[in-house]
Amino acid sequence: MDANISGAPAKKKRRIWTWIVGVPLLLLIAAVATLPYWIVRIPIPELEIDLGGMLPEEFVDTLSNRTLKMNFVLKRHDRWDFALEGRGALLDWPLVLDAKISYAIADLSATSVAAFSLKGDDIRAGLRFEGSAFDGWSARLEVPETVLSSSDPMLESLAYSCLPQTATDLSFSGKVSLTAEANTREGYGSAPKWKATGRVDELSVSWLDDGTSMSAANLRTPFGASGIGSHADIHPLFIRADSVTAGAFSLTNAFASIRATETALLATEAGCDVCGGKARVYSTFLRPDRLDAGTTLFLDNIDAHEAVKYLAFFDGDAAGRLFGKLPLRIKGGKEIVLGEGFLYSAPGRKGRLSIRDSSYLTAGMAAGGVPADVRSAAERALMDLEYSALAFELTKEGEESYALRFTVEGTSEESGKTVPVSIETTLHGELNQLINFGIRAANRKETAK
Q: Between the N and C ends of the chain, which has fewer C-beta atoms within 10 Å?
């Protein structure tokens, strides 16, 4: 009897703990079981993000809508699956989102597969997200190869914002693709590890810059960056283009190997085919925000016939091969300023020179007391000359004035006789009066002094 009396409080105690533990557990099970029911009834507020501060000012001014706006509707698809629909606009583009979301109670994880489309179906993207309370999260975004062109007003405005204000008549087309992924499993603390890579292919662009024709054909390059959290390492760029033109100046088979930082670009090597020969530059820094760069251009096996076309004073033709180097600076992406350099024929290799009007070269002889008949003979010789040495040397005389020394040695045929010729004269003037690249170039000749 004593045992029964002593056991009663113990049973009562167990019943109390059963209620304390069991009731919340049952409530939790009920909440989880009905969670899909309640989730779809929770209103999702409209998403609106102002993107004005993230975009170039010149581009923002052309937009009627500067925000990302989305309205969402969540629908139950299956017991643990949901469909999320989003409709809105990214800047001036209509944006559509269709996503399927699945989650598992056992490990508090969720998986989402989403499809985005911009401008109807012109630009598409796919996103997969996986997250767990115990194992972090990962995400992967893919934009398949997409055609972009200047026929889209917003893309055209964005492209204009990257060009000088004097640019007009812009036209471009090309393809772009992108893959990006991030995860916290390989990151540092809460900072995710991420990587983004892509390609630009078949990009052709042309415009007028203050009346000067500019273009690039079939430009292609991979691009990418990776990092942890806010730290970014920009991947090297390997840019190729079939041709690049600026006014009368044309390059073919252009390439550049570029390493980038957040503020500057370093072209470890760049080159092209120009004037029938090769041109190379090395270790050149470029500020993208200013489009300014200084470097030395090394010229190899240049066709003299093509090279003399860029001498503003030259009225004639030449044949042979030339070599040299030219320090140059690009200002604002459109003006070329040359330093002191030279271009010369290789020793022992002959060529031909034909100058129709060489009076500007021989004018300086008169000031030196050379008789008129000798100057006349020199002009006749320069009409058809086989040279053994030909050189152009550019030196700077003042802030904007240059001297271009012209030297030629060779022979000419006159009245059945071989006449030796040796002429050296110097032209003085502003750079663009001496050398015409078709960019900020003058066409008038400068009289020799």
A: N
